[in-house]
């Protein structure tokens, strides 16, 4: 039966395809006593063999697609799977306690992980996360639950899931996925951000779509409006196929602005930059006409590994981006690289983060890096070394205090001194900047401007921290509102403070790519807009149609208003008159 579902338009586009339901059955551990010890031992052994076969297949595919070095990760996993001490311990549990294979394996793994987690050796400590991953597969194989593989999908798949973590999104089979839809999540959740940089249409926060669809059912996704139609009629399919074509044509047209700069009618030029999550995204950045990278989220490099990436591995990634971000004359575009921003909704499989009630208010980002300075120093050294190959700027996330800036600067200076002593070249004038993501920095921007070289406003977090509204919670997504006068006041305070302190300020939160807000931000004096690459052309087009004086007058009117409703009406009126 045809069903209509409404969600949040998280990444633009239109798609017509078939449901790929990503729903893993819940694991049930049978805790009853059992006398058939031999049967249980057999189940344990068969489960292990099946797991090994699966890991070997994944290894082979990874080697084909990503190279031998990434595939080698799975050799380590197989070694852990075949660990004889663990195996003997589980067999003993089955024999002595007369329990099921899955119950014994779960207990054995849990004891083993606790033991690993308490070791001095960091490498061994981090193996606990690998072991849990392997154990999950092994347990599923024992009880006969199928493990879903997102990296190999049927053609024209629309993935429907309760939620997609950033690592699920990174795994998606890009050749065959045409869109995704989730029950939960908001526009600024990291899977939504990744969908935009991968240019995959996405609708999130539908509530319960996973309960309404069946696997392989025909489905239409209009991620321009957030509409989903399950079991569409022929007319629906025709209508949305046409809408898809029209959208793709417009996207192409906008790309013709590729070589234009973002200069207003009265000659004020701002940066039109893009955000990236990996060196692979640079091609899309240049294709869409961005003249800089305003945010490189390096945590994805950390998330794609089974251990911390080494200094050399990081150096290679940063160098590739610095070298490829150049104009046709070989002049380097700025590349702003953010230090690891882990925690919140981003975890590392190999780093045990403590369970926290409020991870977004917890041990994350710069807080982790300053508590574990070896992580930050390795990254600083890699960034400094790469700075010899282009125009790299270093940016710190989640800053709340001047002390954090000074501590980070001191560590950066230590790294510079080390490299000088080692005779390794780097950009001596490299800039160190901070993100403005907390009210603590926004409202004291002038003071922070004395400490660092530039700012970038992270509205995704600044909105959630100013309003105390979780950015990923769809139940309160209607409250997550960057046009709220309090948030606009924080943004304006940051821009004014930067300029009073004599430094430049960009914005790399998703608000920078919101075409409706271009005039307001331009009028406030933002120096550069950094956004998903697909938004660059639209924002450029807007800037080219406006003049600074009228945008400033708009800001003055808006800042005297007290509700979002009035503010949006005023902005829409301005946009309508100016941009049509
Ligand atoms: C932000 O908070 O606006 C930002 C750009 O950082 P992230 O989305 O990675 O938290
Ligand atoms: Mg942030």
Automatic annotation (TrEMBL):
| Origin superkingdom | Bacteria
So what does this thing catalyse? Answer: L-histidyl-[protein] + phosphoenolpyruvate = N(pros)-phospho-L-histidyl-[protein] + pyruvate
Q: Which cofactor does it need?
A: Mg(2+)
Q: Which residues form the PEP-utilising enzyme C-terminal domain?
A: 252-545
Q: Name the Pfam families for this protein.
A: PEP-utilisers_N (PF05524), PEP-utilizers (PF00391), PEP-utilizers_C (PF02896)
In this chain the Phosphotransferase system enzyme I N-terminal domain maps to: 6-127
The cellular location(s) given in this protein's UniProt record come to: Cytoplasm
- EC number(s) on record? 2.7.3.9
Q: Which residues form the PEP-utilising enzyme mobile domain?
A: 154-226
What GO molecular-function term can you cite, just one? Answer: phosphoenolpyruvate-protein phosphotransferase activity
Keyword tags? Cytoplasm, Kinase, Magnesium, Metal-binding, Phosphotransferase system, Sugar transport, Transferase, Transport
Kindly give the InterPro entries that the UniProt entry links to this protein: PEP-util_enz_mobile_dom, PEP-utilizing_PTS_enzyme, PEP_util_AS, PEP_util_C, PEP_util_CS, Phosphohistidine_dom_sf, PTS_EI, PTS_EI-like
Family named by the database record: Belongs to the PEP-utilizing enzyme family.
Q: What does this protein do?
A: General (non sugar-specific) component of the phosphoenolpyruvate-dependent sugar phosphotransferase system (sugar PTS). This major carbohydrate active-transport system catalyzes the phosphorylation of incoming sugar substrates concomitantly with their translocation across the cell membrane. Enzyme I transfers the phosphoryl group from phosphoenolpyruvate (PEP) to the phosphoryl carrier protein (HPr).
> What name appears for this protein in its UniProt entry?
Phosphoenolpyruvate-protein phosphotransferase
Q: Which gene encodes it?
A: ptsP
């Amino acid at each position: 039966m045809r069903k209509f579902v409404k969600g949040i338009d998280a990444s633009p586009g239109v798609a017509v395809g078939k449901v790929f339901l990503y729903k893993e059955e819940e694991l049930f551990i049978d805790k009853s006593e059992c006398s058939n010890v031999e049967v249980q031992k057999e189940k344990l052994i068969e489960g292990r063999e099946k797991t090994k076969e699966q890991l070997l297949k994944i290894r082979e595919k990874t080697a084909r697609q990503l190279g031998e070095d990434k595939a080698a990760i799975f050799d380590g996993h197989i070694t852990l799977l075949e660990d004889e001490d663990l195996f003997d311990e589980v067999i003993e549990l089955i024999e002595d306690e007369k329990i099921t294979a899955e119950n014994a394996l779960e207990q054995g793994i849990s004891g083993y992980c606790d033991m690993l987690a308490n070791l001095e050796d960091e490498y061994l400590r981090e193996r606990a996360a690998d072991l849990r991953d392997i154990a999950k597969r092994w347990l599923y194989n024992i009880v006969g639950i199928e493990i879903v593989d997102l990296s190999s999908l049927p053609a024209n798949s629309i993935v429907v899931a309760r939620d997609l973590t950033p690592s699920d999104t990174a795994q998606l089979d890009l050749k065959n996925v045409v869109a995704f839809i989730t029950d939960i999540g908001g526009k600024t959740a990291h899977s939504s951000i990744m969908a935009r940089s991968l240019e995959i249409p996405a609708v999130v926060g539908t509530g319960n779509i996973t309960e309404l669809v069946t696997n392989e059912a025909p489905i239409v996704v209009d991620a321009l409006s957030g509409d989903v139609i399950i079991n569409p009629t022929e007319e629906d399919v025709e209508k949305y196929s046409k809408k898809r074509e029209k959208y793709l044509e417009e996207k192409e047209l906008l790309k013709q602005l590729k070589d234009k700069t973002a200069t207003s009618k009265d000659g004020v030029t701002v940066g039109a930059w893009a955000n990236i999550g990996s060196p692979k995204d640079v091609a899309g950045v240049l294709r869409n006409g961005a003249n800089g990278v305003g945010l490189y989220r390096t945590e994805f490099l950390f998330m794609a590994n089974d251990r911390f990436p080494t200094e050399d591995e990081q150096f290679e990634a940063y160098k590739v981006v610095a070298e490829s971000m150049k104009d046709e004359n070989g002049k380097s575009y700025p590349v702003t690289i953010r230090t690891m921003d882990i925690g919140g909704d981003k975890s590392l499989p190999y780093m045990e983060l403590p369970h926290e009630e409020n991870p977004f208010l917890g041990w994350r980002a710069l807080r982790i890096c300053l508590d574990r300075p070896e992580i930050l120093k390795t990254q600083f050294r890699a960034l400094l070394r790469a700075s010899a190959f282009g125009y790299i700027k270093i940016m710190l996330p989640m800053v709340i205090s001047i002390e954090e800036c000074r501590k980070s600067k001191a560590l950066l200076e230590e790294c510079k001194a080390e490299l000088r002593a080692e005779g390794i070249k780097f950009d001596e004038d490299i800039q160190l900047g901070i993100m403005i993501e907390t009210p603590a920095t926004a409202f004291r921007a002038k003071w922070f401007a004395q400490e660092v070289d530039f700012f970038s406003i992270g509205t995704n977090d600044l909105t959630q921290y100013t309003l105390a509204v979780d950015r990923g919670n769809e139940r309160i997504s209607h409250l997550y509102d960057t046009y709220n006068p309090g948030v606009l006041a924080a943004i304006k305070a940051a821009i004014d403070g930067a300029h009073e302190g004599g430094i430049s300020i960009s914005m790399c939160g998703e608000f920078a790519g919101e075409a409706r807000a271009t005039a307001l931000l331009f009028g406030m004096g933002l120096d550069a807009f950094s956004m998903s690459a697909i938004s660059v052309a639209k924002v450029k087009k807007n800037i080219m149609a406006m003049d600074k004086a009228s945008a400033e007058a708009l800001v003055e009117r808006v800042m005297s208003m007290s509700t979002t409703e009035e503010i949006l009406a005023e902005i829409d009126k301005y946009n309508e008159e100016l941009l049509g």
